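Continuing from the previous page...

OK, I double-checked the sequence for Dynein axonemal intermediate chain 7 against my notes and this is the correct one:
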Amino acid sequence: MERLEIQRTEKEKLRKLEAKDLERRNEELEELYLLEACFPEAEKLKRDSRLLSQWKHYIQCNGSPDPSISQEINTFISLWKEETNETFEAVTAKSKLVLNLIEKLKLILLETPSYDLQEKNIIQYQGSILELQELLHLKFNIATEILLRQASTLADLDSGNMEKVIRDENVTLYVWANLKKNPRYRSIRFSETQIGFEIPRILATSDIALRLLHTRYDHVTPLGLVPTASQEHTSTVTYFGKDEVKSVEAAVSKDLQKEYKEQENESNSVHEEETKVDEQGGIEGQTSSVQEEPEATKYELEMKLLSETVSAAQLLLLENASEKPYFSEENEVDLCQFTALGGVHHLDILELPPQCKPRKGWMIVEILKEGLQKYTYPPETAEDFETENTFPPIEVMLEVHENVIFFENPMVARWDAEGKHWKTDGISNVSYKSEDRLITFSLDTFGPVTLIQDAHVNMPYQSWELRPLDVNEVLLTVTTVFTDIQIQIKENLCMLASIKLNNKKHSSILEEKWMTPVSFIIALKEAGLNIFPTGHSHFYVVINYKVRMNLSKFNVLDI
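Thanks. Re-ran it with the corrected sequence; updated structure tokens here:
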């Protein structure tokens, strides 16, 4: 009798928990159907927003081209190519417009749904981006050559060499011209910075110039692929509507009816045996048990149906999931696992061009037809020298940009122009001082370098919370191992509310700036605050999957 009473109490608790869980699932289903009904309206609002943006650009009449119109952007590129003898300051001023056009084109590719993007438009936009990037870098090279022609007139009185630093919000130029060729002058430091080089003797006695062009943007890494409508169609998971869900449940329930009846018969036989054991007080317990057992069995079958549906959806996702990238070359950087931060440092050893010479009130200069030339170091044919001793690696000191957060010591990668990818070989003696934000390393050959960090350093999350603030306004808090990030979301805009690093508030230039979701995600990633998984993230993030609990243990869960 006591055992039956305990069983009845446990089953009563289980029945209440089942009722609450069923109510919760019904509410979630209703919410899902509501969201599905709102999806077309949301897409319409996004489309209207894009059209409004085009209209605003049209009525501004500020002379800037519409990058989505090929005639306008091609005219802009052609006219800028015709402009010659632009100073570095003039190019940096023009670069603001160019970078804005590139950003607009990238946002069009990212924000426009695949069914609204034709393949010819994708090719057009990406082609315009590449043309603008190449032309901008060419203009910086020409401006550097013009500056180096005047190196002798800009020479420092103490050292006799030319040193120049030109700063801008997007670009900073550090250039040093070796005019005196003093073999003892091998340590180069730019004034008011910790940036510099330690050059070998052979460079200290050569007609060369060292240039560090630090761009806050990355125009070196190849553009990512943009999925077309046909590609997205093949990898889309089918979501069932309300009627389809009911039809699937009905079909599956027919297959489970036999199992249900068998379990019901077994439960009835068990109760009959229990009644024989205790004839006096067991009849009441058996009656209530017979009434509750079918409900428990029915719930178990519903859970089985739900489990099979979820498993089928997960299997479909795995079948359509992207494969892990394969790399044929050793030391190649996996851009799905790592991300470049702080822009690109273009390191170049340049041949010093002919200098300006005053003649009877005129400045005479020889202009080389081939333009600015790079100095090959180490030389391709160095048979007569001991390469390791004569052409040692060059030590480089760089400052890490203050607006970029590294949660671990940054790694250095160099650009391989032949393979068109970032690599980590040819770099040694890497040292990072986090307090001074100074990184030092030795480089075998000069070229573009960047600092990289694990893109998933903040994954998986420790916790996240979504808290309502007002109508159509919420606060999203994401807690990771290294940081607490609060994001305010209002209507269709996002804003970084606050950041905490090691439980201390950290100021960021992104705070209090409202942005569209795509622009906001890009800005956070560029600042080193990547909390957004991609289609490849499951290859690089270790996740502790929850173990499914038995139905018999369900009654211990606190709803």
